[in-house]
Design goal:
about 140 residues; Umud Fragment, subunit A; eight-stranded antiparallel beta sheet; about 5% helix; extended
Amino acid sequence: MTQKPPQKPTPWKTENQGSLKPFPIPVKPAVEAPSAEELATSACASGEPYALMVLGDSMLPEFEEGEIIVVEPEGVARDGSFVVAYANDEHIFRQLVKHAEGWILKPLNALYPNIAIDGMEAVKGVVIMKKKPGRRKAMKTYV
């Protein structure tokens, strides 16, 4: 007696339900691409923290290249907070410092210049934590 090999199920039939009919999947039309201004101001959902990798040496000695920082977009920025801000047509990671003429974005490395900002609107998030990749215990919080 020969046995029949088991049949592979097809997407249209199931064992218990018999044959199924295809059904239409609604397709929404593409929306317009966001403008450059929208991208600059809303790269992530407003309330969700996000992670970035530190590039360069402008924030040495506190932040080394390759470290991961976690940014809270709705965090409260204060004098001395480490922030991600939008200045000079780019997002930049610096320390927020209050001085007589207003606010500046200050690098920790003295080789880089300070950047004056008009107001707190430039601040897009506050750094709440840093972590060295691959090291479980090498973590520091800033809240």
